[in-house]
Amino acid sequence: MQPSDARALWQGLEPYHSMIYFAPEGFEEYTVIGLEGMGQGYFAARSAAIGAATAEVVTATFFNFHPAPSSTAGAPASCGDRGETSTRPCSLS
Fold this sequence. Notes:
Blueprint: H1 3-22, H2 24-32, H3 37-46, H4 55-61, H5 67-73
Helix pairs in contact: 2-3, 3-5, 4-5
């Protein structure tokens, strides 16, 4: 695959990928489970596949972000810090 092909694929799929994190319905659900603001919801959604993880693990995973937003805004990122034992991060009810 040529870099131009990869870029074209990314440009075509990115709108579908990013809407999941920024849709108003997502923010409503993040609030229901106790996450505050865009940062916590975003990092919780992005790190969901990790399972229960500390803020330090999430911060390391998102090394390309400044550490402050991923560690403080996303502190309960996968709800591991909230004591949930489910394999699903922050069960949505």
